[in-house]
C-alpha cells in the first residue's frame, strides 16, 4: 500500500508539472495565434473584431500570464479546453472528441496486434534459438528501421498508385456521413487497412527482438532448469516460467505505447491524411492554436500517466519483487 501511495503522489506531482509546461510552452513559440486567424480571413476582420478575439482568448495585454495560468486551471476543472483557432468557433473538446476515436481504433488495434505477434514470435525464436527462425530477425529489423513516413509513402506508391488496391488518403469515403451504418464502417476499415499494416510492419520486429533476447537470458535461469527437471511440459515451462519473467520489460514498453496511442502515430496520420488526433495536433501546431495544442497535449500526458500506473500494477502482479512490503 505504501508503494502504491508513493507512486500516486509521484503521478499527481508529475501531472501538475506536465500541465504547467503544457500552458507555458505554446506561449514560448514565436508568432501570434490570433494573427494567424486574422491572416486566414485575409484581413476581413475589423479592428474591433480583432480586439474582441484577443479578449475572448485571454491574450490581450491587460491580462497577465499569471492570470491566464489561473484561468487555465479553472477552465480545466470545468472541462473547458477553450475554442480552437484552427476550427473556429468549434470548442477544442468537440474537436478532440471527433478525432480521438479514429486514432484509438487505428493505432490502438495496430499496436495491440504488433505487440501480440511480436511477443509470441520473440518467445518462440528465443526458446528455439540457433535455428532458422533467427534469420527472420534481420529482415524484421530492416523494416523496423525504416521511418514510418517513408514506409507509408512506399505503401501508397505500391498499393494505392501502381496497384490501386487501397485508397491513398482519408479515413472514409467522402460520399458517406460518419455513422454506425455498415457501409460506413466497411469504408472506414478499408481506408484504415493500409496505415494499420504500415504501423504493424514497422513495430512488430522491435517487440520480437526484445522478447527474444529476454527469453534467451531467462531460459538459462535456475528456476527454468528446475521446471524442466520436474518433468513439466515444454509449453508450460516456455510460457509459465520463461515467458512470464521475460515479458516484464515488454510490459513497460507496451504501457508507454498505450499512452502514446492517444497521441497517434503523427507522421503516419499526416502521410495518409487520416483524421486522427495526431493530424489535428499537426494542424494546431501549424496554426499556433494554443487551446488545441494544450488540449491534445493534456490528453496525451494524462494517457501516458495512466498507462504507467497500469504498468506499475501489472509489475506488482507479475513480479513479487516489486511488492516492497514482502
UniProtKB/TrEMBL annotation:
Instruction: List the InterPro entries.
Output: MetI-like, MetI-like_sf
A GO cellular-component term linked to this record? plasma membrane
One of the GO biological process terms: transmembrane transport
Topological relation to the membrane, as annotated? Multi-pass membrane protein
Q: Which Pfam families match?
A: BPD_transp_1
Signal peptide (from-to): none
Q: Which UniProt keywords apply?
A: Membrane, Transmembrane, Transmembrane helix, Transport
> Which residue ranges run through the membrane?
7-25, 100-127, 139-164, 184-209, 254-275, 295-318
As for subcellular location, the record says:
Cell membrane; Membrane
The residue ranges of the ABC transmembrane type-1 domain are 100-311
* Family according to the record: Belongs to the binding-protein-dependent transport system permease family.
Q: What is this protein called?
A: Peptide/nickel transport system permease protein
Amino acid at each position: 500500500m505504501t508503494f502504491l501511495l508513493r507512486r500516486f503522489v509521484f503521478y499527481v506531482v508529475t501531472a501538475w508539472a506536465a500541465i504547467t509546461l503544457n500552458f507555458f510552452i505554446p506561449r514560448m513559440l514565436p508568432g501570434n495565434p490570433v494573427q494567424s486567424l486574422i491572416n486566414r480571413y485575409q484581413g476581413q476582420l475589423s479592428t474591433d473584431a480583432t480586439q474582441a478575439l484577443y479578449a475572448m482568448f485571454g491574450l490581450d495585454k491587460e491580462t497577465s500570464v499569471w492570470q491566464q495560468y489561473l484561468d487555465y486551471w479553472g477552465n480545466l476543472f470545468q472541462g473547458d479546453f477553450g475554442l480552437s483557432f484552427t476550427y473556429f468557433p468549434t470548442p477544442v473538446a468537440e474537436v478532440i472528441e471527433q478525432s480521438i476515436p479514429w486514432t484509438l481504433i487505428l493505432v490502438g488495434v495496430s499496436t495491440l496486434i504488433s505487440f501480440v505477434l511480436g511477443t509470441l514470435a520473440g518467445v518462440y525464436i528465443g526458446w528455439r534459438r540457433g535455428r532458422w527462425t533467427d534469420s527472420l530477425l534481420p529482415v524484421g529489423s530492416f523494416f523496423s528501421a525504416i521511418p514510418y513516413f517513408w514506409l507509408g509513402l512506399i505503401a501508397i506508391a505500391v498499393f494505392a498508385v501502381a496497384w490501386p488496391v487501397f485508397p491513398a488518403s482519408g479515413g472514409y469515403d467522402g460520399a458517406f456521413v460518419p455513422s454506425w451504418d455498415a457501409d460506413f464502417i466497411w469504408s472506414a476499415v478499408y481506408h484504415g487497412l493500409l496505415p494499420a499494416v504500415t504501423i504493424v510492419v514497422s513495430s512488430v520486429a522491435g517487440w520480437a527482438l526484445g522478447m527474444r533476447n529476454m527469453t534467451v537470458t531467462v531460459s538459462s535461469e535456475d528456476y527454468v532448469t528446475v521446471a524442466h527437471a520436474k518433468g513439466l511440459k515444454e509449453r508450460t515451462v516456455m510460457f509459465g516460467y520463461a515467458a512470464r519473467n521475460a515479458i516484464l520489460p515488454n510490459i513497460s514498453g507496451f504501457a508507454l505505447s498505450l499512452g502514446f496511442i492517444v497521441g497517434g502515430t503523427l507522421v503516419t496520420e499526416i502521410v495518409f491524411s487520416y483524421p486522427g488526433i495526431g493530424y489535428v495536433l499537426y494542424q494546431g501546431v501549424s496554426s499556433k492554436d494554443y487551446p488545441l495544442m494544450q488540449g491534445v497535449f493534456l490528453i496525451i500526458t494524462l494517457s501516458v500517466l495512466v498507462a504507467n500506473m497500469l504498468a506499475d500494477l501489472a509489475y506488482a502482479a507479475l513480479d513479487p519483487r516489486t511488492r516492497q512490503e514482502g
